[in-house]
Design brief:
240 residues, 2 domains, two-stranded antiparallel sheet, 10 helices, 4 strands
């Protein structure tokens, strides 16, 4: 599976899977269904009001909304439209950073090539055959789509309940935040998938520095991270 390396706010690189053709099509269909619902509501309202000028304004407004929908959504919804958000995918720069307004504009402009001028075929073929699952607009803009949330099962949950009699090893673990714990858990999962030990070393060093602690003798960096996560869950549960 193709991935994009994203540098988090903690300066830790996480590999996110690239969104496939199926997710893109599903997101597109959701957007079209939402637009159709709004369009039919507007048409009903127009005929209910029954004024010619009002109907014209509504139709022009809906046409403009349809044309600029994706651009507006991606700019103001951090690379997502309604369909992309429901499918848990988003637009990012190919280097892993957040896409710029210019990149959103370019990929929106090339919708003409990907969809309008090629009867929807150009973009589908490009996504299917390109290495990073990019349509033509993505290739020109230097963007792609990633999955923002992996499939979740029990071991993917960062906030496991901890037994009441548990004694925390690092009693100031509650100085961390939920987002820190989520990131640590994601680093651990990525390590198990990729065997990239550098992720564990870098993350454990940052956590130890933040908590002003040293990794105890006999405890490796992976055990340190999992212990801090467990300590955090226990301490925050006790304070609730």
């Amino acid at each position: 599976m193709e991935t994009i390396k994203v540098n988090t706010s903690q300066h830790v690189d996480i590999d996110y899977p690239v969104a496939g053709l199926g997710e893109r099509i599903a997101a597109r269909l959701i957007d079209l269904a939402a637009f159709f619902g709004v369009y039919m509501s507007a048409i009903f309202l127009s005929f209910f009001v029954g004024q010619g000028n009002f109907i014209t304004v509504v139709l022009v407004t809906m046409a403009a909304f349809y044309v600029f929908y994706n651009l507006i959504c991606e700019v103001f919804m951090n690379g997502q439209s309604l369909g992309k958000r429901l499918m848990k995918i988003k637009v990012i720069s190919i280097d892993g950073s957040q896409a710029s307004i210019g990149q959103y504009f370019i990929r929106w402009l090339f919708r003409l090539v990907d969809f309008a001028l090629t009867a929807q075929i150009g973009g589908l073929i490009a996504v299917a055959v390109s290495e990073k699952k990019q349509r033509i607009g993505d290739m020109v803009a230097g963007t792609t789509l990633i999955k923002t949330v992996p499939r979740t099962n029990l071991e993917h949950i960062a906030f496991h309940p901890v037994e009441e009699e548990y004694t925390p090893v690092f009693k100031n673990a509650d100085l961390l935040t939920d987002r820190d714990i989520e990131l640590m858990h994601e680093v651990v999962l990525t390590y198990y998938k990729t065997s990239n030990a550098d992720l564990i070393y870098n993350m454990s060093a940052k956590v130890a520095e933040h908590l002003s602690v040293s990794i105890p003798q006999g405890m490796n960096e992976l055990n340190f991270l999992t212990t801090v996560i467990k300590d955090y869950n226990h301490l925050t549960a006790q304070s609730d």
